[in-house]
Amino acid sequence: MSGPAVCCDLDGVVWRGDVAIPGAAAAIARLRGAGLRVAFMTNNSSARVGDYVAKLRAAGIDAAPGDVLTSAHAAAAHLSAVLAPGARVLACAGPGVVEALAGVGFEVVAEGPAAAVVVGWHREFDFERLTRASTAVRAGARFVATNADPTYPVPGGLVPGAGALVAAVATASGAEPEIAGKPHAPAVALVRARLGDVGVVIGDRPSTDGALAAALGWPFALVLSGVAGTPGEEPVPVPAPAFVAADLAALAPELIGAYVRPG
Fold first, then answer.
1. Can you give the pTM of this predicted structure?
2. Which of 11, 67, 204, 247 is catalytic?
3. Which residues 6+ apart lie within 8 Å of 238 measured at CB?
4. Alpha carbon of 41 to those of 86, 175, 203, 213, 239: distances in Å?
5. Beta pairing class for 157-160 and 151-154
6. CATH says 5-69+182-259 is which class?
7. For the chain, which terminal residue's Cβ has fewer other Cβ atoms within 10 angstroms, N or C?
8. How far is CA 25 from each of CA 14, 39, 242, rounded to the nearest angstrom?
């Protein structure tokens, strides 16, 4: 395929919660039809790769497992570089983190003792999970956050994101986390290893997607269908990113015009 790889966020770009954003599927098809490779990188670590593939297909977007990257993968890769295979890792997170950790050979546990604790977004977070995670961290476990996004876009607004859960564990344990997801080094390495050295990042959150693009040295394409531009959330940066559009449907022709040679 010609042109740069397209690293596309999911939440706030392709869908909000379980509701697909109108025109997103057609926009992805249009980008691919123009010869651009499109893959997906999300900071939402809650779901397994197969779940994301199924959700994309239900939204009308063809995807293979190799097209999906998550902050769970970044966290697992980060820990695999510093812990021995078979180490006990406490997952205060959803099944996506469990899958990623098991996939690199860790023993995934629900309570300590543990060599590391990974905190990611999940709706089951409660006082008991907070207690188990913070206790393990105070006992010396390495503290890794999949990401620090404070909110998560859903239909009708925003709900607390992984950053809110991570902050609770940090407060209870007195420790600061190592952050694996966008825009931090483990995520940068993951995207570069999967997509190569030339690309463009599409996202709705300048502080993560825009910063990931900057760390990669890639242009940033901001869509206003998620966090950015929402009252009380992140403003559109000044100066503006390389591309700014209302949504993927409006963005696709801009990217094709910029990166695809006629004929």
1. 0.94
2. 11
3. none
4. 27, 27, 9, 12, 25
5. antiparallel
6. alpha beta
7. C
8. 8, 13, 22
Is the CB of residue 3 less than 8 Å from the CB of residue 262? no
Both tokens of residue 156?
Answer: 């009708």
The sign of the dihedral angle between the CA atoms of 252, 257, 260, 262 is positive
230 backbone dihedrals φ, ψ, rounded to 5°? -75, 135
Q: Are 218 and 243 in contact (CB under 8 A)?
A: no
Same fold, 5-69+182-259 and 72-179: yes
Nearest-10 Cα torsion for 163, 165, 171, 176:
-50
Q: Give residues with Cβ within 8 angstroms of 41, minimum separation 6.
A: 7, 8, 9, 69, 70, 182, 187, 190, 191, 212
Residue with tokens 């940066």: 237
Q: Please give the structure tokens belonging to residue 229.
A: 């531009």
Predicted pLDDT at 2: 56
As a whole number of angstroms, the distance between CA 65 and CA 220 comes to 24
Mean pLDDT by groups of 10 residues along the chain of 263 residues: 86 94 98 97 97 97 97 98 97 98 98 97 97 98 97 88 98 98 98 96 97 98 91 87 97 96 71
62 labelled catalytic? no
DSSP string for 99-165: HHHHHTT-EEESSSS-SEEEE---TT--HHHHHHHHHHHHTT-EEEES---SEEEETTEEEE-HHHH
Class of domain 72-179: alpha beta
H/E segment holding residue 28: helix 24-33
